[in-house]
Amino acid sequence: MNLGIRGKLFLVSLGLIAVSVFVTDLLVTSRLVPILIEGIRHDLYIRLDLIQREISHATLDPDDLPAWDALADSLGRYAGERVTVIRRDGVVVGDSEVETALVPQVENHASRPEVADALAGGRGSITRWSDTLHERMMYVAVPFRREGAIAGVVRTAVPLTSVDHAVARLRTIILLSSALALGIAAALSSLAAGWMSRSVRSLTAVAKRMAAGDLSPRRDTAGRGGATGRDEVAELSRALDQLAQNLSHTLAQLRRERDLQEHILNDMREGVILLGPDGRVAMVNPALREMLLLGSDAIGRIPLEIARQAEIHGLFDRARRSETIQSAEIELGGLRPRRLLAHAAPLTGGSGGVLGVFVDVTDLRRLETVRRDFVANVSHELRTPVATIRSAAETLRDAARDDPEAAASFLAIIERNAERMGRLVDDLLELSRIEAGEFRLHPEPLRLAEAVEQVLTAHRKTATEKRIRMSTDFPESLPQVVADRNALEQVLTNLVGNALKYSPEDASVAVRAVAEADRVHVSVVDTGPGIEPQHLPRLFERFYRADAGRSRELGGTGLGLSIVRHLVEAMGGRVSVDSTPGVGSNVHFDLPVA
Fold first, then answer.
1. What is the pLDDT, as a whole number, of residue 549?
2. 79 phi and psi, to 5 degrees?
3. Per-residue model confidence as pLDDT tens digits over 15-36
4. Triad 503, 509, 510: Cα angle to 5°
5. Do domains 268-360 and 365-435 have the same CATH topology?
6. Secondary structure, 3-state, 264-330
7. Of the chain's two ends, which shows fewer C-beta atoms within 10 Å, N or C?
8. How far apart are CA 242 and CA 265, in angstroms?
9. What is the CATH class of 268-360?
10. 448-458 and 485-502 are packed helices; what angle lies between their axes, rounded to 10 degrees?
11. 444-592 has which fold?
12. Do residues 163 and 141 make contact, with C-beta atoms less than 8 angstroms apart?
């Protein structure tokens, strides 16, 4: 059974009163009763002295029992007490409470303690149960003398019922007083418990709200003036208030730190994973979820279950066992092949956890491959003209000095290869500017027909020499496009130049345009040899050639279509190619309508 403060205070009060009653009764029994009995004994001695004087002067025959009994009856009435006269030999010769005929039958009293003390010349007193009167009695005995010698003992007795009645009345008074005190204590404890319980209930409600997360400060929570008083409840109220403020401040700081860490982890491009002491995933950030294509059930599982990569599991296992930072480069297959640079470090403090950081180096490795390929391609592209120029120069110096025709031929070779190198360097610089974002476009509304006509005019001579027919096909309602004039002319120049370069004699090159919705689709169509299907996906890569030998023979650098793709995409369009071997090619791109 759960007791409230009211019940506990009441029980405490009841216990205190019960203890007080017990102690009072014990004191009355042990101290008051002896005092009362001693007073009665002193009074009996005084009365007995008077009685023994009367008996000492009585001239009665020691064997005249009726006379002695009559004297005892007379003295008993006078004293108001029981009076017994006993001869020296212990025989009772008179008793005020025993009939005369029964006196001879009373047993000998010589062995009674108080009688023995009196016969010895002193005074005797004792308190004991009387078998004759069936009650507790006090006996007092003194000797009486005749002719200077002890002739017998006179004894008086008084029942102690008065003492018992006095003690009983006193106990009754104590019980009544205790009951009254109990009532008063119950009322006072009820009032005190009510005040205390209101204060404690208020503080309990505050503590429960704090436990539920409500940490707003609360003054005067312990009742009227409770928070501003000076008692223990007020001190507790102020302590709870201060605790709420401290907890609120601490939780706010922890929330800020948690939010900051969460923002940092969510915004990191590096993947982060935390393993607990049991080797299971405790935390993983969005970047790693995207890298490893993890689902929402990654938390609580082991790395081998979520990534299916033994290298990752082994990396964390090595870090945990060696307690040192471990690194590895991991290649992931599947739908999104990736290369990850992973670092695993055990947490400090011996907690057994491991922190893993994954960096996606796929693009970095691809760029490194592109760089190596680029350097190799540039070196290869430059090696041929450089070797040709060197060989022609050596021949010109050694063998053709005296042959003007041969000298002119070798000079032409040197000039042609120098031009080829110059075009390659120009295209490399142009492509570098475009990829670095240094090529600034200035989009404006343009008439596509005017730009195409300028480009075709610039290539008219080449087309005439190869007897290639050039034409345009633009509808009259073709809208203007939004493009950079120089970039558009460079795109058309590269596409038309390639069509003329690779098309045989008597072929045709056409530039067509058609508007669809908010785009204008431009096509450069030729009837050249076409391109094999396996080359089409890589046609716009740097230095890629469908026919490397023929391209170098015609002076191509392998960068023109790459420049076209970058410029078209910079102007908000896309470029692609369709080709059928033996039929021709169609390179088409689109631009936004002005």
1. 43
2. -85, -20
3. 777 777 777 767 766 776 777 7
4. 160
5. no
6. HHHHCCCEEEEECCCCCEEEECHHHHHHHCCCCCCCCCCHHHHHCCHHHHHHHHHHHHHCCCEEEEE
7. N
8. 34
9. alpha beta
10. 50
11. Heat Shock Protein 90 (3.30.565)
12. no
pLDDT at 552 over 50: no
Residue in the block written with tokens 């006269």: 85
pLDDT in tens, 167-218: 778 778 777 877 777 777 767 767 776 677 677 777 777 777 777 777 675 5
Looking at every residue in the chain, the average pLDDT score rounds to 79
Residue 429 CA to residue 383 CA, distance in Å, equals: 18
Distances 560 to 492, 494, 581, 587 between C-alpha atoms, Å: 11, 6, 21, 13
Q: By 3-state DSSP, what share of the chain in percent is helix, strand and coil, each rounded to 5? A: 55, 20, 25
Asked whether 423 and 497 are in contact (CB, 8 A), the reply is no
Tens-place pLDDT, residues 400-448: 566 677 777 777 777 777 766 776 666 666 666 666 565 677 889 989 8
Q: CATH fold of 5-165, please?
A: Beta-Lactamase (3.30.450)
Indicate the domain borders of the chain.
5-165, 268-360, 365-435, 444-592
Q: What is the pTM of this model?
A: 0.43
Q: Which single residue is written with the structure tokens 């995207």?
A: 290
C-alpha distance across the termini of the chain, in Å: 88
Q: Where are the alpha helices (DSSP H) in 399-484?
A: 404-435, 448-458, 460-465
Q: Is 138 helix (H, G, I), strand (E, B) or coil?
A: strand
Q: What are the structure tokens assigned to 226, written together?
A: 């409770």
Is the pLDDT confidence value at 506 over 50?
Answer: yes
Which long-range contacts (C-beta less than 8 Å, at least 24 apart) are formed by 305-314?
Answer: 306/281, 311/342, 312/342, 312/356
